[in-house]
Amidase (Ophiobolus disseminans), 1008 residues
Amino acid sequence: MAFPASRFASVLRIAGRRYPASRVGLRCDHPVRSFTNSPTWQIRTKEMNDDLLKDLKVNQGRLMEDIHHTCQWGTGERWGDAPTETGMTRLALSDADKAARDWFVSTTEALGCKVTVDAMGNTFAVRPGLRNDKPPTFVGSHLDTQPTGGRYDGILGVTAGVEMLRVLADNWTETEYPVGVVNWTNEEGARFPKSMVSSGVWAGDIPVETAHNLREVHPGTATMAEELKRIGYLGETPASYEAMPMAAHFELHIEQGPLLELSNKKIGVVTGVQAYKWFTINVKGRDSHTGTTDLKSRADALLTAAKLILHSHRLATANCALASTGILNLKPGSTNTVPGSVTFSLDIRSPKDSTVAKMTEHIMHDFPKIAAGEDVLDSNLGCTSGLPLDVEIVEDFSSPATNFHSDCISSVRQSAHHILGPNSHNLVMDMTSGAGHDSVYASKRCPTSMIFVPCREGVSHNPREFCKEEDCAMGARVLLQSVVRFDRMRDERRVSWKQEPYTL
Amino acid sequence: MAFPASRFASVLRIAGRRYPASRVGLRCDHPVRSFTNSPTWQIRTKEMNDDLLKDLKVNQGRLMEDIHHTCQWGTGERWGDAPTETGMTRLALSDADKAARDWFVSTTEALGCKVTVDAMGNTFAVRPGLRNDKPPTFVGSHLDTQPTGGRYDGILGVTAGVEMLRVLADNWTETEYPVGVVNWTNEEGARFPKSMVSSGVWAGDIPVETAHNLREVHPGTATMAEELKRIGYLGETPASYEAMPMAAHFELHIEQGPLLELSNKKIGVVTGVQAYKWFTINVKGRDSHTGTTDLKSRADALLTAAKLILHSHRLATANCALASTGILNLKPGSTNTVPGSVTFSLDIRSPKDSTVAKMTEHIMHDFPKIAAGEDVLDSNLGCTSGLPLDVEIVEDFSSPATNFHSDCISSVRQSAHHILGPNSHNLVMDMTSGAGHDSVYASKRCPTSMIFVPCREGVSHNPREFCKEEDCAMGARVLLQSVVRFDRMRDERRVSWKQEPYTL
C-alpha cells in the first residue's frame, strides 16, 4: 500500500487532536507496534472511545466525487442543468456495469484490499484486520440500476463502503477483525428478472444453476452466466456464505420513500424489511377484429387485465397493503385487433406476512372469477358481459418479512445518536424497509441491519432520484461508525465471553 | 397473350351450351370479330343475358389453390393438423409480402394484364376491354395481414380478383370496358400504423409524403418509402385517382363478424362502413419504487390507464358503440417500478358519425378528469387517491361513416339473388361493415360496394380465421358477376344517355 502525500494532511489533522499516547511519535520512522494491515502508528478500534469515534469523519466531497465519477458509466436521462443532474441506466452485467465494477476492484485494491469475485460476480473487497482468521464485517450494496434509475439507489451504499476504506486508511485505523465491502450482482432484477438474485445464491436460497440460467428480459436473450463470462466476472469462488462468510452485513441506502423527509428526520434505523411476493399473471382470451366484433362476442384480454389491475389496487387499499404492476405485455399488438393475450407482473407487499398471505388468497380466488366474467366488488359495473377468459397466476418470488439483528440495529442506532448529538431523538427513527435489499438475504446468514437516509420526495427508480450531499455523507458516517462499533463489540465479547460471537 | 391448350376445354364446354349466334363458328380459324383483348370467338358482356351470366362460374378448387399457394409466404401459427390450418403473419412490405406481390404480378401478366405499380406500391393489373379509353372497373383488396392474422382477410379479395381474370379468360369473355384487380399496400396498418394508408393516398386524402415517412411500429425503424424501395415496389406512377382512375371498385371480404353465420346467410350486400376514430393516449405519471411508495404518493400511469380503458368500455356500452385498445406500451418496465408513462391506442366505432362524435366528446372530457384523480362514474370505487397525472389525447385517424354507391350495391344485390336462386331472400342480407377497408377510400373517388361472406364464429385478425371453401367460391362468383353487370350497365347507359356515366 502506497502512502500518498495527501495522507499526511489527515494524519497531521488527526494528530493535532485528542489521540491516545500510542499515537505520539506519529511522524517518527520507527515501528512502535506491528499491525497486520498498516504501519506502526495505527490506532486500534478497541482503543477508540466515543470521542475518538466522532473524529472518524467521512470526506463529503470525496464521497460525492466517487458517486458521480462512477455515474459516467451508464449515464441516463437528464432532468436538470447541472452535470450530475441525470439519471442512470446501468443494467447488471452490461458494459457500463463492467466499467463500474472495474473501478470498484482497482480502487479497493489500491486501498489495500484483497478482492474476491464469486460465481455470481459478487465482488468482495476485504481489508485485513488484526484477527484475519475470522470473517470480515461487511458493508454491501449494488452498482447496477433500473433502466430509468437514479444515482443513489445501491451506488451510495457501495461508494460509502469505499469511503469507509478511505477513512480507515486516512486515519490509519486498525480494525480488530477484517472489514469488507461487497458489490452484489443484479440486485435490481431489472435485466435478469429476479431481484437480489446473487445475494440469494450466496445465502443458499437460490440454486446457482437457476441464477446462471436466468435469461435477460425482452428483447435480449443472454443468460446471466453468459453475461458474467462475457464481462469477465464469472469468478471461481463458489457463491456461498460458506466460501465467503460474513460476521455482519451493514447497508446504507436511500429510503426510496417519503417518510424521513416528511418527518424531517436524518437517519432511519432499519429494523426489518416488509414481506412481498411477485406474480406473473397470464390472461388468455381471443384475438378479434375491433370493428366487427361486438362487445358481447369478445374475449378481450386487455380489458380483463385492466379489471384485474384495478382489483389488485382495491384489494391493497382494503388491506393497507401495496399492489403494483410494473410490466405488461400484450399480443398481437395492433390498433384494430382486440388482444387475445396479456401477461403482467404483480408485486404485493406488506410489513406483515399474514397480510401478504391474505392478499394472495384474494387474488387466487378473485382473478379467475373476474376473468370468467363474474362480478367481484363491482368489477363489471357499467360493462358489457363478453366471453369468458382464462387466467393463470404464477408465483415467481416470495420474500417473507425480515427482522434484522439486534446487535447490528444497536450499532446503527448508537452511531446515529452519537453522531447527531443532543437533538438526535428528533432526527433518528426506527423504520421498516418497503423495498427488498441484498440485506434481506444477508440477514439469513449473518447479523444485519440497514441505514436509511432521506431522498427527495421519496422518489426512487426514477432519473430524478436525489439525495442531498450532506445526507449522503451523514449516512456514510453512520455506516462507518456502525462497522467500527460492531468490530469493537466483537472484540469485547471475545474477551468477556471467551468466544467470537459471530463465527459461522 | 398465349393460348394454352386448356383453353379449348373451356371453349368446347361453353360452345356446347346456350350461346348466341355470333358464337357459332367457334372452332373455325377466321376472325369473325376483332376484339381488343382476345381472339375472334369472344363473347361480349353486353351479349350476356341472365342465363349466360349464370354460366360464369368460378373454379372453387383453383381459387382455394391460389389462396393457399400465396399463404406459403408468411405462414403463421398452426391451429390444426391440415396443411392449410395455419394463420398468417405477412406484414406489409416484408420479404413475404414481396413474394406474394411478385406472384400477383406474374400471374396477372400471364393472364394478359398490364401491371402498374404506383408510388405507394399499389399494384393495378388491368385486363383490356373494348373501350380502353375509359377507366377500368376494379376489384381490389390487399395481400398484407395482421401479425397474427388469418388466410382470408384481404387475401380472398385479391385471389378472387385473379380468379375473375381466369374465368373471363377461360370463357373468352370480352368486357365492354377494361377490368382490373388492385392489391392495395398496408391495408392493415399493422406494420406502418395507418390502416388503408395507400388507398388513402390514392384518394388524395393522405399526402404521399406523410405515408412515405410512416415509420414501422416498434421494434423496427424503417419507413414505408425505404421498405417500398427495398422490395422493389416504389413505382413511378403517382399514387392518385387521377393517374389511375377507376370506374368502380368492388371488394369481396370475409365479414370478420358473426352476423352472417348467426343468421345462416351466405352473402352480405355491404351498403356502407361504420364510422371510426383512432386515438393515441399518453398517460404521464411518475416512476416510483413499488415497495417504498405508499399508494397515496403514487402517480401510477398503468393504474390510470387501466381506469381509462375500463371507462372507454363503459362509454361504449352506454352508447351502443365499440371501444378497443389493441396496443399498450409502458415505461420503464420493471416489476418493482411503478410505471411513470403509459401509451395506448383507442379505437372507437359506430355506424353513426354522431355516436362517434359523442364518444369522442366524453373521452376528451372524462379522461383528463380520471387522470387528475376525480371520480367519473365510480372510476375511483374502492381506490386510494394518488397524485394527479396528466393525459394527452391525440386523434390519429378519423373515418366518417361511408355510404356505398347505389349502382354498385345494385350490381352486388342482383348478382347475389341471381346466383342464389329462388331461396335467395333467405340467404342474402344488406349490412354495414364494422371494419374499415380500402373500399372506404375508393368510394370517395368512384362508385363502390363490397360483398361479405361468412367466417367461422366471426373470428378474424386471428390465425384461426376461417371461411368455408364453398363460401369463398360463392363470394368470388358474386364478385365476378357484379363486375360483369356493372360493365354491362356502363354500356347500357352510354347507349341510352349518350355518355359514360362514370368518367372521372
The two ends of chain B are 29 Å apart (CA to CA). The CA atoms of residues 108 and 503 of chain B lie 25 Å apart. The longest strand of chain B covers residues 275-284.
